[in-house]
Amino acid sequence: MPACAEPGEPVIEPHTTMDDIKAAVRRYIEDNFIMGAGGAALADSDSFLEHHVLDSTGFLELIGHLEETYGIKVLDDEMVPENLDSLESVARFVANKRAA
Amino acid sequence: MLLHEHFERAAQRLAAKTALVVGEHRIGYGELHRRVRALADALRADGVQPGDRVLVMLEAGAEFAIAVHAVLRAGAVFVPVSAQTKADKLAFLAGDTRATALLTQASLVAHWRAARSQVPGPVSCRVHGGEAALEDGERPWPADDAAGSPEMAPRIDLDLAAIIYTSGTTGRPKGVMLSHLNMRSAWDSVQAYLGLREDDVIGLALPPVYSYGLYNLLMGLGLGATVVIERQAAFPLRLAQTLERERVTVFPGVPTLYAALLGVAQIERFDFGALRLLTNAAAALPLAHLERVRRLWPQARLYSMYGLTECKRVSYLPPDQLEARPGSVGRGMPNQEHWLVDDEGRRLPHGSTGELVVRGCHVMLGYWERPEETAERLRPGPLPGQTVLHTGDLFRSDAEGYLYFVARRDDIIKTRGEKVAPREVENAIYRLEGVTGCAVVGVPDELLGQAVKAYVTLAPGCTLGEREIIRHCLAHLESHMAPKSVAVVAELPRTESGKIRHASLR
Fold first, then answer.
1. Among partner residues A39, A75, A81, which is closest to B232 by beta-carbon distance?
2. In A10-92, at which residue ranges do the beta strands (DSSP E only) sit?
3. What is the model's pTM?
């Protein structure tokens, strides 16, 4: 579990699947944004923006979290809704980045 | 003249021209006008009478523009409500305005349905989009191709056009009552210095539910221009792509939006050659950003402005003064008088610091059904029988009368141009179990003007953390009201009578 990892240690095993990433990001969103406090259930393809789950500051926090957790670097030109605006797109994006 | 008459004329003159661009969608003036008429008919069919209040809770988009113009066409009063609004607040707004109708969208169903069940009076409801199963009193919007009648409710310009809610010191939002005359006067004054044109393309990344974005939308459509609504401005690259692709000529921004644009890698690779007007409000642009904006897009004139919902706009800095007075918001605008007063209400000469007072036809009629709060802001002016607006904002003026914002006079926080009442945020935080004390203040922030910060004390053994408190606030308040930071402290500074001393936390 990511929460038990020591600081600085890689927290995700290399064989992590897209579903694992999706579940972990869902947990992160639920723990840090509105979901846990009474928001409606979020489908994998629901837009974070349209469902008011994240605003511009929220996306920056999400990017920081992804970089730290998965050891990836999100380039400026990759900060687009296609890569970041739903659980599905985040999982696909992170999996592709890790495979690259 | 009524607020929506310019739009009615533009729509007839320019039926084939693109009025709105929303993502992939382009909507012409003819189509927009037809949908406005059909929705106005639907409101009448639902029993909405001239003068009735109609809540408009929609995302930025064509439907928002259609709703506002349809409400006006039906002779009713539009009350813009942020799509982020949660059920409790929506119910409060419905009750406070005694609204007879709500125009909203299916994706927000969780919030508006919960709110409707809390309101005693009948509120008819028109729901746009989606396949949500509608319940009693809920109807879909007219079909996109429905033809409406040319009927328009007769109104005069003293009638109310809008009630826009803003935070009050008591923590209860209050409704700024704006007549057609108020809004048209603000429009004319802004137009007199800004000079928007029919061939303009306005890049609107601001939310149209608040005054700044709302007027850009209304004026753009009234002038027959094209308004590009960018809903994905949280992704700065997307915003830059849109500004380039649509050849945007006018960009109304706030410091956070400019910072986001300037943060795009190699922003100079984008061709923003069409940009001719940039406006900034809510807080002053940091000097470094100001310089970069001017270097990157030298052909665009940049206006620094100041306003408040109670009268829309007060002042703009002529672009040729930017170099000499970069922190100033100028010295007023056409068809308006303003001056600074001391604590006793005495008029101050140039070179002083005091509360800004405004006189003009754009000043609101008052706060909806709040005589006491109205009397605090609208006070007798120099002419018998005439009141003037006391803004609650402290400014200093230089020897030539150019204004520089200093601070709020009360505890109200101004963040991103929006007012936030500390009490409203504190009330939300107090609902968390284990919170024993809470004080919310505004702390200086280069981009936001002020950032919301909460100081919290907890019961022994309570382990609430910053993130949980912020998340709780995001679930119960609009996102701009949620604290950016939370400090858990052992105790809060109090006065001898036990009241929390906010001033010592700022």
1. A81
2. none
3. 0.90
